[in-house]
């Protein structure tokens, strides 16, 4: 890592050739913070994919200010802490997103993330109510992978049943939902081709 940073510092034109960047605090504490202290991500003009492993709270503010300006960034994933990312996503060109969780409760309906076509939520438990909310915020989803689908009360869905018309693949890694909940979900994913439950 230090050798790579030294090479980039000595040859700044290399930054234009970097399209994928993965930084990790897992096993290498402080790597993300150290990298961000040496380089501003918005100087990596052709960066298309960014992966941050074991992101810490102290990196969030700096990251949030830069993300909307990474105009070529297509894929973003992070683990570790949760960040309020929906507002930033509405201003970005991201298509592929991997996050620990998404919070729709504090978000207004006009903050859609229409660009996102592939979403993986690694640590959050969702129920049908939250999934329908997700379909409202991310109407262009083609791929969705969630950790847990929880059971929920059927009467919660009277006003909120947004179809996921573009969704082709749905993966549920831990299904705690009833058959009725699954049936309701499938009714609102009319173009689903692959449905995996574990």
TrEMBL record:
What InterPro entries does its record include?
A: LRR_dom_sf (IPR032675)
Instruction: Identify this protein by name.
Output: Uncharacterized protein
Q: Which organism is it from?
A: Adineta steineri
Cite the source lineage: Eukaryota, Metazoa, Spiralia, Gnathifera, Rotifera
């Amino acid at each position: 890592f230090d050798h790579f940073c030294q090479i980039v510092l000595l040859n700044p034109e290399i930054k234009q050739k970097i399209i994928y960047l993965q930084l990790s605090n897992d096993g290498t504490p402080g790597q993300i913070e150290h990298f961000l202290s040496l380089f501003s991500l918005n100087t990596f003009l052709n960066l298309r994919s960014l992966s941050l492993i074991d992101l810490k709270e102290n990196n969030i503010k700096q990251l949030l200010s830069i993300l909307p300006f990474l105009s070529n960034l297509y894929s973003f994933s992070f683990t570790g802490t949760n960040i309020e990312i929906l507002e930033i996503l509405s201003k970005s060109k991201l298509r592929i997103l991997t996050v620990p969780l998404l919070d729709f409760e504090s978000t207004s309906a006009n903050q859609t993330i229409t660009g996102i076509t592939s979403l993986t939520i690694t640590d959050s438990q969702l129920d049908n109510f939250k999934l329908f909310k997700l379909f409202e915020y991310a109407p262009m989803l083609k791929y969705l992978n969630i950790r847990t689908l929880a059971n929920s009360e059927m009467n919660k869905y009277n006003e909120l049943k947004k179809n996921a018309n573009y969704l082709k693949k749905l993966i549920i890694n831990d299904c705690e939902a009833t058959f009725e909940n699954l049936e309701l979900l499938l009714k609102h994913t009319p173009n689903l081709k692959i449905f995996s439950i574990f």
